[in-house]
Fold:
Amino acid sequence: QQQVKQSPQSLIVQKGGISIINCAYENTAFDYFPWYQQFPGKGPALLIAIRPDVSEKKEGRFTISFNKSAKQFSLHIMDSQPGDSATYFCAGGSGTYKYIFGTGTRLKVLA
Amino acid sequence: KAGVTQTPRYLIKTRGQQVTLSCSPISGHRSVSWYQQTPGQGLQFLFEYFSETQRNKGNFPGRFSGRQFSNSRSEMNVSTLELGDSALYLCASSERGNANTGELFFGEGSRLTVL
Structure:
């Protein structure tokens, strides 16, 4: 099975707070785990990605935590801003571009 | 560089008709993937082409087909449309041939409504 399970489905956070989105995968052949951010009316755009040989990757306010043994990874958005309000998708992939995406998390950051 | 361009952006069809969607990748990108996006289902992989060859196909019925031309432009076709085919169809291109070394660049999608 190649599912990627993503939670929560929606998330409301106060400005300045921490947003946390979790994903779990089943396919141990996955060796690339990107997160995509999508604004209304736009296509998804790569936010940050990690490979399973590292446990954490940080880019600015965005951090991926990766737990290979548990087959889980999460996105942390520190100091969340209203401009971060978007839908976030996690994904797993290997080899060619057949990504399996999670079902998405709609994040709303209150001003 | 221009981004991924998808046409048409919006279209309305009736059940039983067929539709063709077009995607122009970023210049120099040879890999083109197609995804179907629906509320609650997220993005579901349709197929991926590299240098005119289909390398991967998702779990969609044979009514969904695609092709890639020598200039890397791609089209997807859906025949005998059903109500459940209403969705946003996203095209994505990538420069490299392996997911481990490149990122997907998505277009803004073609929103198909089937009545």
